[in-house]
Specification:
Layout (H helix, E strand, L loop, with lengths): L1 H8 L6 H8 L2 H6 L10 H22 L5 H11 L2 H10 L10 H5 L6 H19 L1 H13 L15 H11 L6 E8 L6 E8 L3 E7 L2 H26 L9
Helix pairs in contact: 2-8, 4-5, 4-8, 4-9, 6-8, 8-9, 10-11
């Protein structure tokens, strides 16, 4: 079963013991009479939390270079939260790989939010210890960051740029936007996508991201900003209405 998980992780462990430890909950270790710290994933969870925080911070600075520290901190808090990690763990069916004690298993441990979030952090640490920062970073980007929509974190500004662009195009009587994948870079487990969006002949923008969704959102944001500037310019240059004679 761990071989299937290695395929999911896009990493072949040189030390399979690290992977097993990352998946071992303390209930299983206690059940087997193992009291040592290294018999379960809690210490790896501690290390993985630190690595996750670094990779997320690094990624946010690159993705949102114009954002304030407060805004970046808010986004980071969302991305490293148990709720978000739980969703990422469920998406890769991590629960089926966990090594749990019988009681924990029977009580639904494979679906518990905290338990799955902790296992995700332990996996990050195991990847780091076995292969360095490269595999750990690739895992975080693919499994935790790739489909991130900053609107989930409660940002005040318009963050569904594709939807906003579609509505503005309708308002300005422009053709509906079309999206084209121009390029896919990098290995399968850590791809970068380049997508172009076009509105008729005059408006276009390029976006780049770790998923098609994020790349198309970035492209839409660029064209949306151009259209907003054009509309503002048109409003400013419009002739003032003549004042009616008294």
């Amino acid at each position: 079963m761990t071989e299937a998980l290695e395929t999911e992780l896009a990493h072949h462990f040189r030390d399979r013991g690290l992977l097993q430890r990352a998946l071992t909950h303390r209930s299983r270790a206690y059940e087997e009479g193992l009291a040592e710290v290294c018999s379960n994933n809690e210490q790896l969870e501690f290390l993985g939390d630190a690595i996750l925080g670094f990779v997320v911070s690094e990624w946010l600075v690159a993705q949102f270079p114009g954002d304030s520290e407060g805004r970046l901190s808010k986004l980071k808090a969302h991305l490293v939260s148990s709720a978000h990690l739980h969703q990422a763990a469920q998406a890769m069916n991590l629960g089926q790989y966990l090594l749990l004690g019988r009681g924990e298993d029977l009580s639904g441990g494979r679906e518990k939010k905290t338990l799955l979030a902790n296992a995700m952090e332990a996996l990050i640490a195991a990847l780091y210890q076995d292969g360095g920062m490269g595999p750990a970073r690739a895992f975080v980007i693919k499994r935790i960051l790739s489909d991130f929509n900053s609107g989930e974190a409660g940002g005040p500004e318009v963050l569904n740029f594709k939807g906003a662009l579609k509505e503005l195009a309708q308002t300005m009587n422009l053709p509906q936007p079309t999206y084209i994948i121009l390029e896919e870079r990098g290995p399968e487990h850590a791809k970068t996508f380049v997508i172009e969006v076009r509105l008729g002949r005059n408006w276009a923008g390029l976006g780049q991201g770790v998923s098609k969704k994020s790349a198309s959102q970035e492209a839409a944001k660029i064209v949306l900003e151009k259209l907003e500037q054009q509309r503002l310019s048109d409003d400013q240059n419009a002739p003032c209405p003549k004042r009616a004679a008294d």
